[in-house]
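Thread: Modeling a multi-component assembly for a lab meeting

Hi all, long-time lurker, first post. My supervisor asked me to bring a structural picture of a complex we are working on to next week's group meeting, and I have zero experience with this. I have the sequence lines for every component (225 residues in total). Could someone generate the structure of the whole assembly? Inputs are pasted exactly as I received them:
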Amino acid sequence: NAGVTQTPKFQVLKTGQSMTLQCAQDMNHNSMYWYRQDPGMGLRLIYYSASEGTTDKGEVPNGYNVSRLNKREFSLRLESAAPSQTSVYFCASKITSLANTIYFGEGSWLTVV
Amino acid sequence: QKEVEQDPGPLSVPEGAIVSLNCTYSNSAFQYFMWYRQYSRKGPELLMYTYSSGNKEDGRFTAQVDKSSKYISLFIRDSQPSDSATYLCAMSGEHSGYALNFGKGTSLLVTP
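Re: Modeling a multi-component assembly
Sure thing. I ran the full set together rather than chain by chain. Output:
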């Protein structure tokens, strides 16, 4: 029973490099989310996809792009990484956008040097 | 001003103590209130969920919502070292498309 699976778990990037964080859920959820968590800042929403085929910006979307590849998968791309994007990234899903129970992945630790 | 405010702590208590964790919020449109627990290097997991005002109890945990004061609380009775974690409050409402707004989290340490 995997739930929400994120890859990679750890990554070190150089400034200006690009990379994609992958997320997949096996719970047949419609809504998927990307959050970042920084010390003293809590969880902040980057982008979300309320349903397959739609994506919307959250609180901190600058520097990121997303793709809802299909119902299961929601990827987050950093086109030109910056040190300010050093953070822990969490993917999450809900059965629908109206639901209140959200399930999180284990997190991806990203360091940009 | 952030919509959801939560004291980051850290909070250190002896085993067996009653723990009180709190959040305040500014938008009266929030309808659903949740508490998540996050262990170190793990994703948050849902602990308690309440709708509107009132109390909800689950074992050693009690969640309270006071919408008139825009204040929510989580009480942990007979705290255990295994309760040591970061506790995040979260809330949502129709006004924000039910996207969850999180507090910054309170770090709790229960010492044996």
